[in-house]
Design brief:
Blueprint lengths: L1 H13 L4 E15 L11 E15 L3 E14 L7 E15 L2 E15 L8 E13 L4 E14 L7 E13 L4 E14 L11 E14 L4 E14 L4 E4 L2 E4 H5 L5 E15 L2 E20 L5 E20 L7 E14 L6 E13 L1
Antiparallel strand pairs: 1-2, 1-18, 2-3, 3-4, 4-5, 5-6, 6-7, 7-8, 8-9, 9-10, 10-11, 11-14, 12-13, 14-15, 15-16, 16-17, 17-18
Length: about 350
Amino acid sequence: MIRIYKFIFVLLIFHSTSIAQIYLSTSVDSYFDDNIFNNYLQESDFVNIFSGEIGYDFETESNNLEIYYIGSFNKYNINADKSAQFHKIGLVNTYLFSENGNPLNAGVNYSSRINREGYYIYDYNRLSLYANYLHSLSETNRIQIGVIGNRIDYQNFSLFSHYQLKGFLRSINSFESRTSVIVGAEIDQKLYLDKLEQDGLTDRVVQTKLHFQVGQGITDDFGISAYLFLRKNLESGNRYFSNDDFVYYEEEIFNDIYSNDGTETGLSFSYLISPVIHAKIAGKYEIRNYTNLPAALEDGTELNELRSDKQFSLGTFLEFGLSSILNGLSLSTSYNFISNSSNDFYYNYLNNVYSITLGFDF
C-alpha cells in the first residue's frame, strides 16, 4: 500500500504544472421492481440507490490524469438483507497523440461489493487494468483497439474466483447521410484461480463476441439505432458445488455470462424534445443457449436437456435538464418490461420496473 501512495505522489509532482480541477456528482435512484429476483416466484421490492463520484483531474494540452472514487449503497425495503454497498477507486490517464485526438487511455481500478450477512456469498473484490487506443484514419473513420485484464475474488467461494483477459477491435465510421456504423470483435478468456482438473469442472472458458451497430439521424432531433450482438463459446464449461440433494451452478449464483452462447438484437428511437428534454424508446430480443447448465423442474429435478432462454424487453426513458433551477441538476424517469421464456420452470417470468433518478453534477 505504501508503494501505491508513493506512485500517486510521484504522479502529482509530475503533473504539478498542469491545470487541476475537482469534480463531484451524486444521484438518488428509486425504483419499484415487481420481480426483484427475476424468477417465477414474482417477489417485488422498492429499492433506493444512493450514489456518488468524486475525482481530480490534472490536465495539460495533450494529457489528462484522473484519480477518482465511486461509491453507492443499495437499500432494499422488503428484502432488507439484500442491501449492499459498492466501492471503486481508480486512476486513468489519457494522452492525445495529435490534433485529431488519437487518444491512448490506460488505467487501473479496484472495486468491491459488500453485502449483508444473508447474502455474504456475493461479496467480491475486483482488480482491473486496461488500455485502449483510438486512431483517426480520417475525419469520419476511426479504429479502436484495446485490452482488459480483471482479477475477481469471491471471498466466500474461491471455487469461482477467476481472471478475465479480453481483447477487442472496433471500426467506427460516419457518413454525410447522417449514418454511423460500428463493427467490432472481441475475444475473452476466463481462467479460474483454483486449477481442479476434474471431470465436469472446467478450468477455462474462451468466448468470442461480434457486434454490429448502425445509427441513422433522421433530423437534428430524431434518430434511430439498431444492433446485432453474437456470442459463441469456443471452449465451454461450468463450475458447481453440491449441498445435500441440490447442485448449485455458478450461473445460478452469479449470473455468469460465460455459461451461455447468445444472440441479441435491438432497436431504439431517440428524440430531443427540447434542448433540456430527451426521450428514448428501446426494445431488444435475446436468445441464451446454456452450454453446460441443465434445465430443471419446479422441485429442482434436472431434465435431460440444457437450459435455453428467450427474452424480450421494452423500455422507455425520459430525462429533464433542470439547470435553470440549479446548475448541474437533472431528473430522469424510466419504465422497463421484461418477458423471459425458458425451458427451466424457475426462469419463466415477467418483470416490470419503474424508476426515477435525481442527479446533481458539481
